[in-house]
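Encode chain A's predicted structure.
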Amino acid sequence: MRCYTGAMFPIASSRSTPRTPVFAGLLVSLAALLSSTPAAAQSPPSYQGIRPPNPTALVLDQELVRIDCPPARDVLRCAASAHYVIANTSDTPLETDAPVMVQGLADVHIVIDGQPWPEAPWQLHVSLAPGARTVIDVSFSLEFASKAAPSGLSTAGVVPAIQARHPLLAGDVGEAPSHPVIFTWSRNWAAVRGRNFDVHYPSGWKLHGSQWRAQGAVTERSVSKEISDSDVPVDVDLRRVAPAVPVAPGGPVVAAGSALGQGFRMRYGYEFGVFDWMIPSVTADVDYAGLLVMTPTVEAASAASFPVPSFSAGFGMPIRVRPETRAGARLKLSAAMAVGLEATIDYYPSQGDWETTLAARLSL
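Encoded structure for chain A:
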């Protein structure tokens, strides 16, 4: 068993994206988020090698599986193939049924001795004279995503904080969930003389699976593992290597409310996600009467699970730019999904002033 890694070069997608009004898109995302229920468990995609229903005297000379994944950034679209050479080494004609079992895989094509086989079901029949051989090639496509869907919904209905607050724009934080493809070797042949599994994939991705534990860290090298005498299924899962400090882009936020005893306030800002619990942000508070307060803030936030929102608490440093310059300290509390509430308490030690603001917020 050999796997190879090589240099990765980002490629741009030529697929066009339909334009959707921002608020309509937000409502669609919110509907998906709020109506989320635990998903039913699904069987992983699988490919089963050619397996006669009963033991046969025919010999499987070669069984070679190969996966080729060109460089990609977010989704690996891989071409997979299985190559078989079947031989009759006896002195009498032999024949057998040879079904190909495929589940959850796309673009399946079969070629026998250079001739395309009609469409599914893939119920092949092999009939060989003494000393004859036949070649069967099966091809199909695979996809491995680097992250979850934009909503970030998991099968448990729990959404990381940054994705709950920014269902339209937030990316995924951390490593992608496991979505392996299961390959099962051919059986019921008189003998299997050669068997191999090759995976070619770009750097920046890591190969996971029970048969690939010897891989270690991803580097510019090749790794080999002998499995020619094994009938153990091979699970293949390619995942993008998570950065040491995973960052999700987050999105903009706007809030409207009141500073108690001081009147109307508007707040504009942008939030990021670090790991799946930290939310740094930068905001600007205005009253459209000359006030401007810029505040960097860092919050610790919980995940959301409807109807429970994401709760957060954090500290910031409000810097009043207008009408006079001064700096202070901010305590911030919030409960939010795409919409929510937040409260801030600012203290300016140079003047001994306190300012409490309550606001409703909307984030994309």
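The first strand starts at residue 2 and ends at 6.
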